[in-house]
Design brief:
By secondary structure, the chain is α/β, with parallel strands linked by helices. It folds into 3 domains: 114 residues, Alpha/beta knot; 60 residues, tRNA(m1g37)methyltransferase, domain 2 (Trp Operon Repressor, Chain A); 141 residues, Alpha/beta knot (3-Layer(aba) Sandwich), CATH 3.40.1280.10. Helices cover 36% and strands 17% of the residues. It is built from 12 helices and 14 strands. The strands form 4 sheets. It has a 7-stranded parallel beta sheet, sandwiched between helices. α1 packs parallel to α3 and α2 crosses α4.
Length: 338
């Protein structure tokens, strides 16, 4: 910045209008930014660490890591001229509710977080994926040798050598930590990897189910092939002719028999009703459940009344959104998947 300063002292700041401290001046900032643009030949994505910015998150870091050229403006004193911010800054970022001397430490934090997403920067990509916040959840506890230290041992499951049980333990501990320490993260977390098994069932009263689209959605969210429940025999036969090989069955009992007693059944209603749960509460229930989850939809809410399970809703009121679109929105809101 000093290379673009004014006068003998290479001044880059001045007093704030209306009294106050020193503010970095817009002309010098603009010249410095132009020089960076000239050197690279590309317009940079400009980031300004600021207490007024959006709180830093993994999603913001991923956005920055995808940019071809990032320029970080480090403010000092009272900050930088607001006119420069309005015209040239693409993203203001806050690292927390605290005051620092300048923007250099936040800049270091941003660069370090971005660097982990550069292929090859971290030896194993799995280590990046399992980090806290990558999927929106906290990481599980980790232990190393010695097996007993100051009287405290390592959880027995980690020394047993059973990879499946270790994976299951880590998943449960990540869930427990997140729900206990940072329950606020759950609303935006992608939780599909933390659930054992997910299935979708649709109760149909006519042949208007878009099974092809439904299968595509379930495949995208790792929910297996969907079940279509049709009580009327003639409807089942008609649908089987239309969709040969589909999972078209006559009742919910057959699904329960396949998935076992450890299945949590979630009835997804079109709109709020008595005893129904907000989507965030449904998401918590799914995370707390140590077993499979079955989401049940119907072509109208009346058809859900005889199904046993908790009732959740996504939309604030009933709408004419097509069933397949409603299922897609629901799965994305409740379980998500990167």
């Amino acid at each position: 910045m000093r290379g673009f300063g004014r006068g003998n002292y290479r001044q880059i700041d001045d007093y704030a209008f209306g009294s106050g401290g020193m503010v970095l001046a817009a002309p010098q900032l603009k010249e410095a930014l132009d020089s960076v643009k000239t050197e690279s030949g590309k317009k940079p994505y400009v980031v300004y660490p600021s207490p007024q910015g959006a709180l830093i998150s993994q999603e913001i870091i991923e956005t920055l890591a995808r940019q071809e050229h990032v320029a970080i403006i480090c403010g000092h004193y009272e900050g930088i001229d607001e006119r420069f911010v309005e015209r040239y800054v693409d993203c203001e970022i806050s690292i927390g509710d605290c005051v620092l001397t300048g923007g250099e430490i936040p800049a270091m934090l941003i660069v370090d977080a971005m660097s982990r997403l550069v292929p090859g920067a971290v030896g194993k990509i799995k280590a990046v994926i399992e980090d806290s916040f990558y999927r929106g959840m906290l990481d599980n506890p980790n232990y190393t040798r010695p097996a007993v230290w100051e009287g405290a041992g390592v959880p027995e499951v980690l020394t047993g050598g059973n990879a499946h049980e270790i994976s299951r333990w880590r998943r449960r501990e990540a869930i427990r930590r997140t729900l206990t320490r940072r329950p606020d993260l759950v609303s935006r977390a992608s939780v599909r990897e933390y659930l054992q098994g997910v299935n979708v069932a649709v109760i149909a009263e006519n042949e208007s189910v878009n099974l092809s689209g439904l299968c595509d959605i379930c495949r995208a969210y790792d929910a297996g092939r969907p079940y279509i429940i049709a009580e009327r025999k003639e409807l089942r036969e008609a649908m089987k002719r239309e969709y040969p090989g589909a999972k078209i069955i006559g009742s919910m009992k057959k699904i329960t028999g396949i998935n076992g007693e450890d299945t949590l059944t979630v009835k997804v209603a079109e709109s709020p009703s008595v005893n129904s749960l907000h989507s965030l509460e449904v998401k918590r229930k799914c995370l707390e459940h140590d077993g499979n989850v079955l989401f049940v939809f119907a072509q109208n809410d009346r058809m859900l009344e005889d199904v046993d399970g908790l009732t959740g809703y996504i939309f604030g009121e009933s709408s004419d959104i097509p069933a397949v679109a409603r299922i897609a929105v629901t799965l994305d809101r409740l379980i998500g998947k990167r």
